[in-house]
Amino acid sequence: MDFMVIKIIIRIVLDILSTSFITKYDNLPSIIFRFMMWCKRLNRHVTMEHIDREGYRFSYFSRGKPGPQPSILMLHGFSVNKDVWLDTLKHLPEDLHVVCVDMPGHGNTTRFLQESYTAASQAKRIHQFVEWTGLNKNPFHLVGMSMGGMVAGLYAADYPSEICALSLLCPAGLRYPTESEFFVRLKELMFSKDPSDSTLVSVNEKEGEKLLQLCLYDPSFVKTQLLKGHLDDQRPYKMFFVNCFLDVSSAQSRYSLHENMRRIQTPTQIIWGRHDKVFDSSGADILATAIPNSQVHLLEKCGHFLALERPRKAAQLLLKFHNSFCDNTGNEPDEELNASYVKSEKHQE
Q1: Can you give the pLDDT at residue 174?
Q2: Active site residues per annotation
């Protein structure tokens, strides 16, 4: 069957699924979501891979082959997996070598409940992955989103010789004067739950839906269900994600990027959804002030999950920045992007 036909069928099915239908047939959305991801991987021509060393497995997919242009390594955020980059990959050249890895404990990468998942510990694990795959034979472009952005920032600070460019997409790990709407609501739920309830946060379906909608600028049914699909796919590993969340948000890890941002000397691109309700977009100014060779792009009509809401624009910015700082083909660097600080990007797609 033609792939476009498959996509149309899937879209129609998602559009006709009402909330009550999803509740009644709980496994069906998960099946549809996994089928969608399978189709997207086929369409993006990615190669599914894994590497095993010392009793540990990293799961990842790649596209393209290492060449004169530096490779790109992409790190996703908390509780999702490498598939969250598939929409962004659609708008990147297929001959560009791109690697998307499942973060420690996420997706099909090994998860140990007893292991530390602080940002620093995850950065060390990612360095293992880079060494095992030989990605650091030449400096590469590191991209991180949300929790992955915090880890990417620490990686750039700890292993500066391995990175030619750094892109931080709405990263976690910064200290703000006030808490975001998302975390205010999360705390309300944590403190309102029954003392006998041992779960980290106890929410009903309605409250869960509201939290998801805070992650998106346009919380339409389809986008909300897509985000829900990414999260629900990890549901069997709930206990791990509780431990991971506690480690990442612990006192020693919570502000890791803020505490190390002045150590970052790599040319850095900062992309943020202007309407991010999880990590406020004012974090872009905090980073730009601390990192000497940095530039900022604020995306209009975009919330926290910009890889889902603005994948094309994100890809365009990533590629332009990559070519500017990582071009080994003899082309002249892009003067616009080599400016030390670009205050705001307001162009619409």
Answers
A1: 97
A2: 146, 276, 304
